[in-house]
Design goal:
Radius of gyration: 20 Å
Helix content: 25-40%
Order of helices and strands: HEEHHHHEEEEEEEHEEHHEHEEH
Number of domains: 3
Number of helices: 10
Structural class: alpha+beta
Number of strands: 14
CATH class of the largest domain: Alpha Beta
Distance between the termini: 25 Å
């Protein structure tokens, strides 16, 4: 999706991925191999105007070797839940209670590293014994889950998309709605701005939040374009993907305004009938070219300014696959 946003800007792309069938092969040169293979990293960066990454489990040393943007420090913070929480707190951003602060159960025991889409965490009914490499996190009695997509350019200019309201199941994002109704946008932007400035950030950053009676509590950050921002392709004046590219190439940022009310639905595990979805002329279908398997994100659909009846009908088509 980064390449699809950049090709109209006259950009070309080279990718590094361990999988020979990575979807990126359709939109640029694909180098197949480990993310930490020095020779491949050097080939990846050879002649490039900028290098970036689109998920946070890339080795920090690899990002440093190629001078990736966002800077590897943001990657390092996001890869360790305990380090991430410490940064939030140092910047005055509230978080859930952790470790010895947890006084009520059940609570979540999470791996400090390599957790996403609900992986690396489990509910515990009592305080566990020593668990190296884990962090205990108290449950937050939130009203809803929100996310803020922020972008910061090389010169320090910043822009923010409207707050997104998200629904998860089994730890996987199922749907996003924009703009989140009566959401504390200014509070979210303040938190994100602190992170962007502290990290000297360049590119798109997603901040995942819990809304507790209008008070925002930070869950985690993602130093990259984000699933809860896929709605921006059709639903915003400038997509998160284009703005990420503009930022890392030191080009002016585009407008982050939404084009109306937007609903995005993820396609998880298996695909609905594309023809049935596309009978609705203003439904935008994106398929990622991935082999179906349980829990895997295979694509998404976006609806801009839909009626509630259309949202229900399209949701029913999507949910028939689960």
């Amino acid at each position: 999706m980064l390449a699809l946003a950049g090709i109209p800007l006259g950009l070309s792309f080279r990718f590094l991925d361990p999988a020979p069938d990575a979807p990126a092969r359709e939109v640029g040169e694909l180098l197949v191999g480990a993310y930490d293979e020095p020779a491949l990293l050097d080939r990846l960066a050879d002649g490039a105007d900028a290098v970036t990454y689109e998920f946070e489990n890339v080795p920090v040393a690899a990002a440093r070797r190629v001078g990736a943007l966002p800077d590897a420090r943001a990657l390092e913070v996001s890869q360790d839940r305990l380090v991430e929480k410490a940064l939030f707190r140092r910047l005055g951003i509230p978080t859930a209670p952790i470790d010895e602060e947890v006084t009520s159960f059940p609570a979540l025991l999470k791996t400090r590293r390599l957790g996403y889409d609900g992986k690396g965490q489990r509910l515990v009914e009592t305080r566990p014994g020593p668990a190296p490499g884990h962090v205990l996190e108290g449950l937050v009695p939130f009203d809803r889950e929100l996310s803020l997509l922020a972008v910061r350019g090389a010169g320090g200019e910043t822009a923010f998309y409207p707050l997104v309201e998200n629904v998860h199941a089994e730890g996987i994002l199922r749907s996003s709605r924009v703009p989140a109704v009566a959401a504390p946008q200014a509070q979210a932007e303040d938190y994100a701005a602190r992170l962007l400035d502290e990290l000297g950030y360049v590119g798109v950053l997603a901040l995942e939040l819990f809304d507790v009676g209008g008070r925002l509590i930070a869950n985690e950050l993602a130093p990259r374009v984000h699933n809860s921002g896929h709605w921006t392709i059709e639903g915003a004046e400038t997509s998160q993907f284009e703005n990420h590219l503009r930022a890392i190439l030191d080009l002016p940022l585009g407008s982050t305004a939404a084009r109306g009310e937007v609903v995005m639905l993820n396609l998880i595990g298996e695909l609905p009938d594309p023809g049935a979805l596309l009978e609705y002329g203003d439904v935008h279908l994106h398929l990622y070219g991935k082999e179906p398997r349980p829990g895997r994100k295979l694509g998404h659909v976006t609806l801009v300014d839909p009626t509630s009846e259309k949202v229900r009908a399209v949701t029913d088509l999507v949910l028939k696959q689960h």
